[in-house]
Amino acid sequence: MSDSNPIDALTALEAEALAAIEAAEDGDTLERVRVTYLGRSDGRISAILRGLGQLDPAMRPKVGQRANQVKSVVSTALEERSAALAGPAAAGGLDLSLPSRPRWKGGLHPITQAVDEIWHIFRDLGFSRARGPEADTEWYNFEALNTPLDHPAADEQDTLYLVDSVLLRSHTSPVQMRTMEQYDPPIRIIAPGWVYRRDTYDATHTPAFMQIEGLVVDEGVSFVDFKATLAEFARRYWGPDTQVRFRPSFFPFTEPSAEVDVKRVITRPDGSRHETDWLEIMGAGMVDPNVIANAGYDPERYTGWAFGMGPARIAMMKHGVDDLRTFFENDVRFLEQFS
Fold first, then answer.
1. CA-to-CA distance for 146 and 132, rounded, in angstroms?
2. Which CATH number fits domain 110-338: 3.40.50.300, 3.30.450.40, 3.30.420.40, 3.30.930.10?
3. I want to staple 299 with a disulfide (CB 3.0 to 4.6 A). Which of 13, 21, 92, 292 is the partner?
4. Distance, CA of 22 to CA of 15 (rounded, Å)
5. Whole-prediction pTM
6. What is the dihedral of CA 170, 176, 178, 184, to 10 degrees?
7. Residue 323 to residue 326: CA distance in whole angstroms
């Protein structure tokens, strides 16, 4: 600090250091600049701060203040230049200032969406939600539902037995009996849940799938109530122009029994309307009097109706999916369409 004016010398040193920092083209060069000006032993600015004691007492405060200012400015410039040089190199040439990818957003599975939509419609029609165990007994899965154990459905080739008479339920109908055992009429429930069968895994079958059971029991319940409720459900789910057809069928636990079909009207993007073929959506019927009696009710006093549908097949129809396995392959590209 032999200059006649130390303040001017510091200003010139500041300009010199900033120019050297700006000219540095890599981290090694920048580090040499830092050592030259801010190094503890040989740094030129550090040396000025160490030599304050040799100055005139009247000059020390001003020179010390200015030296600290220069040190701060040079330190900041070093940090900024270091970030500018290290950014693209550290990222392998990527610009780290770009926005990050958005976080993955979860959504309901399309089958879960179908279950929720069906449930909301029946809830508005006065139904409650019920559930039962997935591992049940032969009594609840077959015998109580008017299905003898020598029926083909009870064979081990079709049913997944666990131990003795305990099995994985092959339908959600056991919830009917369990509900009737616990409550007196009137009963209006739907029971969604997983069921299990020895089915081949193919485009229309899976060994584990969701099913929705419905049950109504009360005095004076008739086939007219049965048809009107299911027709109203179909129109609410697929649209007011939906047609409903009931075909005679057979199930051990309902008499008379019916297959329920719908014919939908689809509006194309160009505004034209297309009527589909008849599509089966569920099996249903009036509850067999033997099932009513097995629950401890008087079949002369109480009647009822029941249905069972697969929400996966309902979702296939709604979204135009032609292979049931697509829902279970966990392909995010497919599933994110329903989020």
1. 19
2. 3.30.930.10
3. 292
4. 11
5. 0.67
6. 180
7. 6
